[in-house]
Amino acid sequence: MSSRAHPEEAVTASAAGTPSGDARARFAELVRCVCDGARLMVGFPDYDTYVEHMRRTHPGAAVMTYPEFFRERQNARYGADGRKGFRCC
């Protein structure tokens, strides 16, 4: 018998498909972007993004509470304040 290993058996554990920290970070960022895009497509507002935007670009302005933010987004989308009339789809 030969003492040489078969090429497939010579793969080291580090190269056997375990992603590095950089690849994991890039994958996590991709997943976050896909999820954010999906939420935007179905009209689910992101309160944390709103708060970050308000604090960064409008530091003196009051930040709405989550219930206020949600209601404002619902009114803007469905027109419950009389601008567009009510529509569900």
List the helices and strands and how they pair.
Elements lengths: L20 H22 L4 H11 L8 H13 L11
Total beta strand runs: 0
Order of helices and strands: HHH
Structural class: mainly alpha
Radius of gyration: 25 Å
The separation of the N and C termini measures: 72 Å
**Strand residues, percent:** under 5%
What do the pLDDT scores average to?
76
Shape type: flat
Helical content band? 40-55%
**Helix count?**
3
Low-confidence segments: 5-15
The major β-sheet equals:
none
Task: List its traits.
89 residues, mainly alpha, 3 helices
Describe, in plain words, how this protein is organized in 3D:
The chain is an all-alpha fold and 89 residues long. It has a domain at 21-78. 52% of the residues lie in helices and 0% in strands. It has 3 helices and no strands. The chain has helices spanning 21-42, 47-57, 66-78. The relative contact order is 0.06. The model is unreliable at 5-15 (pLDDT under 50).
Concise account of the structure shown:
This protein is mainly alpha-helical and 89 residues long. It has a domain at 21-78.
